[in-house]
Structure formats: structure tokens, C-alpha cells
Design brief:
With 168 residues, the chain is mainly α. It contains 6 helices and 4 strands, in the order ααββαββααα. A two-stranded antiparallel sheet has the order 1-2. A two-stranded antiparallel sheet has the order 3-4.
Length: 168
């Protein structure tokens, strides 16, 4: 069955599909806010991310999972600003844009394009940080990996939603 035939067979209204993608994006953004909030708290309080690293001592792609090592690396800061705080800010902006995109005139018109840009930047930055974990730090932080996965999914959904809005 071709993609077109499958769509006709299912006959899900486009508005329902759009709302589902938006709802999924909101859920992912909330999860991102929670993960980045925890990482920000750990960094700003001077605590060790290893204290609540659920996979500490295990490996991922042959590298150790060591949240504390990643948290203490030079890649955890941009100048005086913790990367986790920047991530928290990014997730909050994405969440607000999603929540307000049908209420604020600018977001009604440009919200999906704005979300695409925000998530593209977040995805690219997550790729950079994942590269740093692999090539430079040679350890993973499970919270950072979770954040990268969340941002990747948000980026994919933003592409889907932007394509839908351009097609209609």
C-alpha cells in the first residue's frame, strides 16, 4: 500500500495529526526542561552529577558513563556560563513558543519556522557536545545523552511540523 493509499485508508484529519505533533513536542520540551534543570542545579550548587548518575560505571559505545567527569570538563562551560543553564534556557524558550504559537500573532505566523531554527541550533549544539564526550572527554553523561536525544526528537518534529505548514 502506497503512502497516499495508507493516508486515505486511515483518514485522520490533518488538524488532529498537527495537534498530536505539537503535543508530542510539548512533552519532549517539558522533559528537556526537567533534565536541564537537574544538570543546572548540580552545576550551580557545586554538587557532583555522579551522585545521581543512574548508569554510573557502565559503558556506552565502549566509553564509560561518568557524569561527574563530563560535568567537570571544560566543555561544561562557555566562558562563565554553564552549558546546562544555556540548555535550560533553550528548552524554556522552545516550550514557551510551543505553548504560545496559537495565541501570539508573531508565533501564529512564524512559530513553526522559529521552532525549526531553535531546534536546529539545539540539535547542532547537542551534536557538538556529543562529539566532545566521545572524542575529547572520552566519557558520557547519561543526562547529557538524554538531553541530546530529546533535542534530536524535537528537531525531527519541528521539521515534520514545518513541512506540514508549508504544504497547507
Amino acid at each position: 500500500m502506497s503512502g497516499r493509499a495508507a493516508q486515505q485508508a486511515i483518514k485522520v484529519p490533518l488538524a488532529v495529526t498537527r495537534d498530536a505533533w505539537r503535543l508530542a513536542s510539548i512533552v519532549l520540551a517539558v522533559l528537556g526542561v526537567l533534565a536541564a534543570s537537574y544538570l543546572s542545579y548540580v552545576k550551580l550548587s557545586g554538587g557532583s552529577a555522579a551522585m545521581a548518575c543512574p548508569a554510573e560505571g557502565q559503558t556506552l559505545l565502549g566509553l564509560p558513563i561518568d557524569c561527574g567527569l563530563v560535568d567537570r570538563s571544560l566543555y561544561s562551560m562557555i566562558g562563565p556560563m554553564p552549558v546546562a543553564v544555556l540548555g535550560l534556557g533553550g528548552y524554556v524558550v522552545i516550550l514557551l513558543a510551543l505553548l504560545l504559537e496559537d495565541r501570539v500573532p508573531f508565533l501564529v505566523e512564524y512559530g513553526r519556522l522559529l521552532l525549526f531554527g531553535l531546534t536546529l541550533f539545539g540539535f547542532a549544539f547537542s551534536l557538538y557536545l556529543t562529539w566532545a564526550e566521545i572524542a575529547q572527554i572520552q566519557a558520557f553523561c547519561i543526562w547529557c545523552v538524554a538531553s541530546a536525544v530529546l533535542m534530536t526528537l524535537l528537531f525531527i518534529l519541528s521539521v515534520i511540523r514545518l513541512r506540514q505548514s508549508l504544504a497547507s
